[in-house]
Design a protein that fits this description.
By secondary structure, the protein is an alpha+beta fold. The protein is built from five helices and twelve strands.
């Protein structure tokens, strides 16, 4: 009766139905058997002393097969236990998303700043610095806009948002913001030396109040740069306060006292042409 070796028994168990994995002890026994099996011939001995019997051939084949199976099992176990590098998920890949950027708005967003009123159409030419030829002119920086027709001999002495100054000889016609309202008391405040009450007046398209002519000294008006314009001694003053479409316009005429009457006639000729912007 032939006795089956431990290797053959191990193979039977491994090759049995549903045999998927060798127990650890079987692997240990197999490895021990392989370790104790001579793999090289001893020196001085012939390569083979006797023919190898068929059972021995089978045993050697089984050992070789077992070694291959064990090595394959170990390699498979090693591969299955190695950590697998995580590949990036499609959800984590950087890719442009339609939701990432806000869609362009089809309508402009409302602005917090107020929209300035459109500049009215102004007749004539702007008051240019220096002498002015006869014609119709309008202010550009100073408001309410002054629109007037001038004869020859007038010149623009200066203009900013607080003061427009026109000159003719020694006379000066200033347009300013001195009065706070179109009222007799405010009109009197522009010419405090006047002993009389201001009188109603209409000049061109506007109405208001007028003071009498008096001699004056001191500050007449202040421009945007806070420069004060003072009347020299011997100067006479005549003023008007007009309602220009709800805005207050103060007009001051100054001239040497000896020339004030002629200057007043020239000034009235200009003020009678005051007009609204188109």
């Amino acid at each position: 009766m032939n006795h089956r070796t431990a290797v053959e028994l191990a193979l039977d168990r491994y090759l049995a139905d549903r045999g998927e994995r060798l127990p650890d002890r079987v692997l240990e026994e197999t490895l021990t058997a392989i370790d104790h099996t001579p793999q090289r011939r001893r020196a001085g001995l012939p390569w083979r002393l006797q023919p190898v019997s068929n059972p021995l051939k089978a045993a050697l084949a089984a050992v070789v097969l077992m070694a291959v199976v064990v090595a394959g099992s170990l390699l498979l176990q090693r591969q299955t236990t190695l950590p697998v590098a995580a590949s990036p998920s499609p959800s984590t890949l950087a890719s442009p998303s339609p939701a990432a950027s806000a869609p362009p708005s089809s309508t402009p967003s409302p602005r917090a700043t107020s929209v300035p009123s459109p500049t009215p159409s102004l007749p004539g030419s702007a008051f240019a610095a220096g002498p002015l030829a006869a014609g119709t002119y309008h202010s550009t920086a100073f408001t309410p806009y002054v629109v007037a027709t001038l004869p020859d001999g007038w010149a623009r002495a200066g203009e900013d948002r607080e003061l427009l100054r026109l000159k003719r000889g020694n006379a000066e016609l200033g347009f300013a913001h001195n009065a706070a309202a179109v009222a007799p008391a405010d009109a009197h405040g522009t010419n405090r030396g006047d002993p009389n009450a201001p009188t109603p007046v209409t000049l061109g398209a506007f109405s208001g109040f007028e003071t009498s002519t008096t001699e004056t000294e001191g500050t007449l008006y202040i421009d945007e740069g806070l420069r004060a314009y003072d009347a020299p001694p011997g100067t006479s003053l005549h003023t008007w306060v007009l309602d220009v479409d709800g805005r207050v316009l103060t007009i001051l005429l100054t001239a040497p006292t000896a020339e004030i009457d002629a200057a007043l006639d020239d000034a009235r000729a200009v003020l009678e042409t005051l007009a609204r912007p188109d």
